[in-house]
Amino acid sequence: MFSEVKTTCPYCGVGCGVLAQVDEEGGVAISGDPDHPSNFGRLCSKGAALGDTLSMEGRLLYPEVEGNTQSWDTALNTVAYRFQEIIKEHGADSVAFYVSGQLLTEDYYVANKLMKGFIGSANIDTNSRLCMSSVVAAQKKAFGSDTVPCSYEDLERAKLIILAGSNAAWCHPVLFQRIKKAKQDNPDMVVVVIDPRRTATCDIADIHLPIKLGTDHILFNGLFVYLKNANEKNELFVNNCTEGLDAALRIAESYASSVETVAELCDLNVAAVEDFYRLFSRTERVVTAYSQGINQWSYGTDRVNSIINCHLYTGRIGRAGMGPFSFTGQPNAMGGREVGGLSNQLASHMALENELHRNLVKEFWHAPLIAEKEGLKAVELFDAIDSGKIKAVWIMATNPAVTLPDNKKVKRALDKCDFVVVSDCMRNTDTTRYANILLPAQTWGERDGTVTNSERRITRQRAFLSSPGEAKADWWIISEVAKRLGYAEQFSYTEPADIFKEYAQLSGYKNNAERDFDISGLQNLSYTDYDELKPMQWPITKENPNGTSRLFGDGVFYTKSKKAQFIAVKNHKPALDTSNEFPLRLNTGRIRDQWHTMTRTGKSERLSGHIYEPYVEIHPVDAKQSSLQDNELAEVSNSLAEIICRVKISDSQQQGSIFIPMHWNDQFANLASVDSLIQSIVDPYSGQPEYKATPIKIKPYRAQWYGFLLSRRKLNLVNASYWACSRGQGLWRYEIAGDQIPKDWAECARNLLCQHSEKVEWTEYHDVAENRYRAARIENNRLESCIFIGPDFTLPERDWLLNLFKDNKLASKDRISILSGKPPGEVKDSGRIVCACFTVGLNTLTDAIKSKKLITAEQVGQLLRAGTNCGSCVPEISEIIKKTL
Ligand code: SF4
Hints:
By secondary structure, the chain is an alpha/beta fold. It has 30 helices and 34 strands.
């Protein structure tokens, strides 16, 4: 017997439906929900591994005040008292909330209501500021509202899909799978990928435009001009439904007047640009999907508007199979935008700068106050903490000490802030260490509420586990503080459904079809209706009770004139120039199997097996110029910080720029937090930071020794100058290096690995002259730990040794081979995991490709099952086939 609960994946903005089957022993089996219209049963590697991440390890279970466990009452009273005191002395703008796209809509709504309507400040901002606020700003400029016009089904109905600044194969894998399948079903469909890197997404690209970093707006403005010259203007739509064309075109023509000019400025082949322009020009059904590669720039808003302009000019918006389509990063980034989680918005897509809207929200909430002006955006907010203007901050479900630009400054600010409250499900993050008060929050599987995905689809997240310890829902925590601040009546919710209904009612309150966000069709839901709510796309009104798949089909927009606006996009370049000292540009982004700061995905062995260490990807020519070898360590630095990562030389990286993933932080590596290198430079409209083009330098990190360490126990590595740790099955894996050779390796290794253990079987090998040391600790005939040290980074493969930890008993043939690091006899090491679902390693794949002469990923799948579940690794398998053959 088991119970089955329909819920939603907590990771990316695709918002896949998930089935959680809980058995009588509490075991949880995860699968994709075949009925969910966003994924139809598909899940990517991260979603499929959700069951691996439900352990209690590392959870924050009880409230803490100044490091001591306290009752909820004490903790909540302290939060309310300190906020009240600080507000009394320094005013409402001396406090702030920093929230997250991980929150559910109900949590978000209550946090926003408390700050804007009752504290009376707009100092609430969200980590979504970092990933998609440029889209919000651009859509508001062009449409008068933050409206994503498209649906996922438009990806299947399009004839041309442009993926700009989006590695969908890794970052929105189920959408990538949907596009791939649509392309298989419709051989006429063309996919163009615009990305400086040759990413896994290029696996389905008919055309890859390896554009010069930061020049996408030139390419799209060039397209705008090309469309004009090709007479592709949709006269009816442009004349009746838009404004501002001439000014926008004039500016575009001033620097992107011809295909040749564009190709030169974007470092692209003239013929390739022309092909792309011709394709766009002659294809009616075009979707331009874009993501952080477009948004995360100091001119991100303009970059988005350059895309929207082309769709407006051709009238390709609001109809099936076409439109500009932002893929959101987080599971509820869209929900946060709807409730006004950004400091420059009011709830339900109302505008802070609009007096009518302010009065309306105040009246609806029965609020004593309403924020009169914009609050501080994420980067400004932490600057204000640093300068002492903000004296109390409450951080919910996010890790700004890792993810904000110049995160050393963020840590400094939090360290000196008078009062820091952190609500989180994890006890130890880079941010929780600065908290005066820690509040244990429920996490995925325990929480109940709704999220909205990239296609405006609201889906229920449902609980299927009981809350551990004293963890509580975020909406409950916020409401309890609000009650203690004197607002019991306005925050007397007993269920998330109460909040949702209020929020639905507000969306329709005096709306009169003047605001895009309207879910008033859901305002009278009963508790049972809410429990059973099916995924639905807003607007959801009396007239459209089942939701709306696309908007703007009627050519009416939410600007004053009801017309869409062309936006003149000036030429821009990255905020900082490279120099002799910092000659390369740093680009950052996600990897396939990790999510954000790894607090959840870092628990999964199979997700940690794909890429287990922070790395820097660099073009062979740049590597040569910097004297870097593949697989060695490199130091990447600028005036703000330095980090250390493993070198991966690849011609998929463009010359002149390097790529480093965003995920690693102090919990998983001692010197790999890439956002410590990012300057706090933001887009003037959206406040989104420029994460994609930071000037840096790179050089080899030449340590005195290198090594790795595998241990069943988590370790504290004080003697390593560099370490990065990851999960393996039954063990922790550490890659290490050091600046100083210990006087006695044996003593050092024993101190580290043999603590608390009396009956230790210790086997070791030491070549003093060569500085090679290897040791293994065996207990009750089980491998407990091993360490391999050498003078350089060429050390034995780890995968066979990793497998030894899966067993509770060492085979004698394996025992004698441990210190060689190689499997005995003919046994082969399976290599680094490529397919996380079926744990198929690189060596297994290359051997099969060679011996069986496999030439397609499908053939590999038939033989080894690799790539046949979620499909996330298929592009990598294709790449391995290419390289192997
Ligand atoms: S694509 Fe993957 S990470 Fe994104 S929502 Fe779906 S299963 Fe989750």
